[in-house]
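Changelog note: in this version the structure field was regenerated for every chain. One regenerated record is shown below for reference.
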Amino acid sequence: MKSFVWHPNTQMKEWDSFTKIVKAKGMWLTDSDGNNLLDGVASMWCNVWGHSKPELINAITKQSKKTQHTSMFNLTNEPAEDLATNLIKISPGMHKVFYSDNGSSAMEIAFKMGLQYWNNIGEKKKTKIMTLENGYHGDTFGSMAVGYIPEFFNKFKRQLFATIQIPVPNKYRIPKGFSYQDYQNFCIDKIEDIFSKDEKIAMFVMESGAQVAGGVNIFPEGFQKKISKLCKKYNILLVLDEIATGFGRLGSMLQYTEQKSIPDIAVYGKMLTGGYITMAATLANKKIYDSFLGEFDDWKHLFHGHTFTGNPLAASVANENLKLYEKYSLIKKIKKHQKYLRNIMKEYQNWKRLEM
């Protein structure tokens, strides 16, 4: 049967057909021929509990019998309200939650929030966005501009707005003449030098804890914390992308608490619903939120919205997902497994040294 589906990041000329998944349970996907495939990438890094988790399916089913979708434009729904409360409880420093449908959109919202914040308080000259080289924040145009990976996005470079890109320390790609520590200091010094000279810097945007799509580059200890301190020192907003690194993916519920770097804006996605329904959230602190308050004719409110913002089905499964984190003490188990895997890696490294 001919397919009319255009697949993502795929050279379609190379493919005559695609494996059709008809069932999924736990870690396994089952195709139309009855073969089992290990879902080794957790369905693009978003599946937390495996497929067909009864609690998550039941949450969707139960909510579907009440409301399937209602607009958040001047209306609300109970699951979305409950989820916002739950997210604020686990997110130090955050004050309000803005919902969207996917990570790229959530990052675009973060950029708009940050830029309009400065406009709302009368600091209209602050319009520049600073970020790290080789970062990734999504595939929409604003996200491509800020998270610019040449191999992915060079065909669109002329259409992207300018950003200030800062080199990032990578243990496996240290420039000649530097030690790993020296290069960390170089990158931090470069950030402070620009902060101190350019009063137009509005925000610093980075993935929290590690660069993922850009090559799984774990930031050195203290690196993100130093950037956070510099942002506070020079009155620059810190925007942290937790989409692929939070909710246990790097070993803690939120990487920004682990990194001791509370942001002005934080962005969640992927694991938010356990990987069952698409949803993302952009959280802002009170300073950001309060700047949008005023009379209607002040035009300070955030001009952004999605049809499926705060979808009650997605919010319901996200709430149940957060309950499961507590029920199964997932973060504690992850930390325990981390130690085990770290010991295995040490044994392997020692064995390789002996072999050499």
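Spot check on this record: Residues 57-331 form a domain with the Aspartate Aminotransferase; domain 2 fold (CATH 3.40.640.10). Residues 146 and 156 are 13 Å apart (CA to CA).
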